[in-house]
Amino acid sequence: MSLFVAMDLQAAVIAHLSWKSRLTDFFYGVENLTLADVPDHTHCDFGKWLYANGLKELTGFSEVNAMEAVHKDVHDGIRKLVTMPKETRMSDEGKQALAVFKDKCDRLVDILERMEKQAK
Predict the structure, then answer these.
(1) What is the pTM of this model?
(2) Which member of 12, 52, 67, 102 has the greatest number of CB atoms within 10 A?
(3) What is the extent of the structural domain holding 72?
(4) Where does the Chemoreceptor zinc-binding domain lie (predicted)?
């Protein structure tokens, strides 16, 4: 694997941790997000790289399928929370949805970091 793949994976980690922070800020009313601010998993910077070249670059990684599925789940979770009415976000249901999103985001970051180490 190349150092460039490791750098792409590292950039994906940073971007998705940033989304975790942004969504938490949104959840508590610090940041305003709309559905237009949230690309699907194929149109974020990582998704564009992944579906243009990344899958070819990552063929030797055993976790690539899991990473791809969790990446989609993370984006679906962001979209779900952004479209959730404020009253629901502030309820136990909303708090549970945020916790589920954070867990998926942490799982994605964990997978990406393991892949990054392998790529180096």
Answers:
(1) 0.89
(2) 12
(3) 3-119
(4) 16-81
CB atoms within 10 A of CB 61: 19
Q: For residue 35, name the pLDDT band (cuts at 50, 70, 90).
A: very high
pLDDT tier for residue 3 given thresholds of 50, 70 and 90:
low
d(CA 6, CA 14): 12
Q: How far apart are CA 48 and CA 72, in angstroms?
A: 13
Residue ranges with strand state E in 64-104: none
Domain count, the chain: 1
Contact 35, 80 (CB under 8 A): no
Whichever domain contains 61, its CATH number is 1.20.120
Angular region, 29: left φ>0, alpha ψ -120 to 50, beta rest? left
The answer, yes or no, to whether residue 52 has pLDDT greater than 80, is yes
65 within 8 A of 72, measured Cβ to Cβ: no
